[in-house]
Amino acid sequence: xxxxxxxxxxxxxxxxxxxxxxxxxxxxxxxxxxxxxxxxxxxxxxxxxxxxxxxxxxxxxxxxxxxxxxxxxxxxxxxxxxxxxxxxxxxxxxxxxxxxxxxxxxxxxxxxxxxxxxxxxxxxxxxxxxxxxxxxxxxxxxxxxxxxxxxxxxxxxxxxxxxxxxxxxxxxxxxxxxxxxxxxxxxxxxxxxxxxxxxxxxxxxxxxxxxxxxxxxxxxxxxxxxxxxxxxxxxxxxxxxxxxxxxxxxxxxxxxxxxx
Length: 260
Hints:
Structural class: mainly alpha
CATH superfamily of the largest domain: Ferritin, core subunit, four-helix bundle
CATH topology of the largest domain: Ferritin
CATH architecture of the largest domain: Up-down Bundle
Order of helices and strands: HEEHHHHHHH
Low-confidence stretches: 3-8, 29-48
């Protein structure tokens, strides 16, 4: 029994290993969850009498409803407890106008058959607890900042859904909602208490945009590795075929003696 001499692995063996690693990494990347801030898939598109209703359409109804569930009571607190007269007035306006916006979201949801949430998110409840625990100038500053931050987050979501939706009810709803949100941002900024430097950067690490860019880079790197591996296989195959076709010096010598 002859044993094959041990030595460094061949190019073909290394290529197989590289391809196996690429497949494993690609599987891991595709299975990896998105960051906590990423949007949650809430179902497949549904066909309504008013047009198709996509998950993003339903999600925006939920977001506006939950915004009202915490911003209305915070507006009422500000109207009663704020130290600044302007903050008290802004709180009153936000409370009153969110009640109107709440009626609009309920009307749209009823038309589309969408069930709305009945309580704020855990994060929104934390904001409420944080604001409620403050007093005096600190209450004014924290209420204005958290309200302004929340409105700044929901406005681009409304704009994106408005631009993409095929549903006329959602188009009307998002158009009206954007007007409310933009007006509330102006109210809050008129207090002079918004700490703009502390507002989240829309392209900061951890946003959906960053996650998308990161996944694009990883997929590109994997494809590059796969392409390189295929080139190695092709190059090795061509080299082996060329070597088989080229006679060795010993074979040429035997051919010469045979002709002599």
